[in-house]
Amino acid sequence: MIQAVRTLQEQMESQGYITDQAIATTVYLAMALRKPVLIEGQAGVGKTEIAKVLSRMLETDLIRLQCYEGLDANTALYEWNYPKQMLRIKMGEGQAHSVEETEQVIFSEAFLLKRPLLQAITYPDKAPVLLIDEIDRADEEFEAFLLEVLSDFQVTVPELGTIRASHRPYVVLTSNRTRELSDALRRRCLYLWIDYPSFEKEVRIVTSRVPGINERLAKQICVFMEVVRQIRLMKTPGVAETLDWGMALMALHRDELDPDTVDQTLGCVFKDNRDILKLRGGAASLIVNEIRRLPEEQLATCSTAIAQRLQKELSPAEL
Amino acid sequence: MQYSDRPAPPEGTLARRTLAPGPGQHGDLLRNLVAFGRRLQAAGVLVTPDEAVDALRALDQVDLTDRSEFYLALRAVFTSRLEDLPVFDRVFREFWRLHPGPSDRADMDCDEEDDSKVPQPPEASQEGATEISIEEWNEAESADEEEEVPGYSAEELLRTKDFSAFRADELDEIIRLTTKLARRMATRLSRRHKQARRGEIIDLRRSMRRNIKYGGDPLELARKRRKIQKTKLVLLCDVSGSMDVYSRFLLQFIYAVQHTFANVESFVFSTQLTRVTDYFEQEDITDALRTIQREVLDWSGGTRIGQSLKTFNDLYARSMVDQHTVVLILSDGWDTGDAQLLDEQMDELSRRAAMVIWLNPLKASPGYQPLCKGMSTALPYVDVFASAHNLASLLELEQHLKAS
Q1: Least confident range of A265-274, A292-301, B209-218
Q2: In what order do the strands lie in the sheet with B273-275?
Q3: Which residue from A48, A312, B201, B402 has the fewest beta carbons nearer than 10 Å?
Q4: What are chain B's domains?
Q5: What residues in A contact B85, CB-CB < 8 Å?
Q6: Which residues of A touch B104 (CB under 8 A)?
Q7: Confidence of residue A3 (pLDDT cuts 50, 70, 90)
Q8: Amino acid B49: pLDDT
Q9: Which residues of chain B lie closer than 8 angstroms to A179, CB-CB?
Q10: Which chain A residue has its CA at the smallest distance from B212's CA?
Q11: Which of B279, B267, B343 minimizes the C-alpha distance to B312?
């Protein structure tokens, strides 16, 4: 591993983002080659977090464009401040200004509302991090527009002319794969798929992010998560859920898992009632009792066996 | 690219070439990267010459003696979707004759497993499939259905018989009518769009500019047109045994719809799902139907709606179904598969689509209630539940499409 990647990984971890070589290498390349990086993965594996950490490391601002269906170029780029323009015109009434003069004033930068993309392009002094979140939720038309912006980092405002980025932003795109993205966009980006973390990585995440948690509880939580990710659920929990649950258990002053507490706190882990009903009582207790039986050093490798036992316990109708 | 038209070096030498070049050996490495890119391209990964250049730039930045870093850098540049990863791993292994770094072992080993998940080509065990599925269907029907809803299945079956209405000599007339019907639906729907086009949104940006001359008072309003999203249609038609009397008729309807509307994808299913959009592109409907009947393995077989929908959701839904898509399922809802699976798949499909319409030919029979397991499972996820037993009922479909 070259020093730069190792340093980057250390830097990311010091910012509270526990990572691995694959993520560190891709982020490093994105910075070195100045290419956008497209991050895909299940919900809650920390895709958005990468952009946040990147901006903290580079000591620059994070500009976020949250995509949604119907998002159009205007909303993402700029809008004129109509009320302000209106007021300005009213104030100018009675004075001898020509239409052209008024236009000059009200279509100047002071009346421009910069939306995220224009903010990123006109960011002063240094390159910001531009996070384009959940690009799969915007439509194809917007994607095409975005591709144009990402290729030359310049936009044209008819009244003002062409604005070129003085500092090319670092671009991070995330997608939950609800829609297939165009090949053109994919090709422009480096690609990173983030899977659920390994047991060791998740334990490190929990111990670094949940203050005061003891090693044993952290491991127990992570085994539990590993087990439930192997069974069929309506919504498989991500790392965000692991952390929520850890926080909740700390707030309840627990230092290890027990069936009752787990039953009471299932809502932290599962976000679909059908999953809670499936796990509550028997299934969750089974996992917890298995975990409690095992010595700490075996926790790292036991999840598959527990998941198989669980499969047998849950009747076929439940699965 | 000046290198792209050079012939690729023979494969044997490539694989044996040293991997880590010293300074000034970029020529070799670039050539290898281009060849590697071509190999990936042949294996189905989207690669262009630009990526080989990017790969070279990326390799400049990493430690070439660190195998996992070399692998990770190339992976970040050459792949662009999850599906590429197992392919990339395989080609990488073959091409660079390298063992992956220890940290990536888990990643690299999964590709065999993934390959086996790819559905088998239709050639495999064509003969056996039909027999087995019919057997299963019969078995399941006697055991499952009668147990689940005692007393009702037999009645429902009788009602089915009442509907076996269409004689062979009526076929031409039906084709003519369905085509006419589909055209009428298409024109009506587009006319509605034209009316909607009289812009109803006020365009503030242009209004402001236009009204400067009135001192900013909004005397003239500029309007902009709402973007018209064309509705896409996905048709899923049940061709299992229990649908025999309807499926031929419904397929003609699908044929007519596909030849009249712009964005239509068609599938048929019984125990498994087959995409038939391309077959329907044929000009002659008799040819089209004959091809479909030949190509679809389990025509008139059992029904596994849940499994068929899972195939659709896993393989097609992501690229075909979005919030402007109407999914039309034509089925009697007699399911011999896993009800829980059907429940989950209907849930997923209904979330993804703008609207799910279920047309059930049995629905029109007097006193029909959706009692069979499949239908009652699916019903909560269906936006419109209507009948499809005759032409008039299909005409009503227009109303539902309008509503979307």
Answers
A1: B209-218
A2: B273-275, B264-269, B232-238, B325-330, B355-360, B384-387
A3: A312
A4: 11-117 (no CATH), 132-196+229-403 (3.40.50.410), 199-227 (no CATH)
A5: 193
A6: 22
A7: confident
A8: 79
A9: 318-319, 322
A10: A99
A11: B267
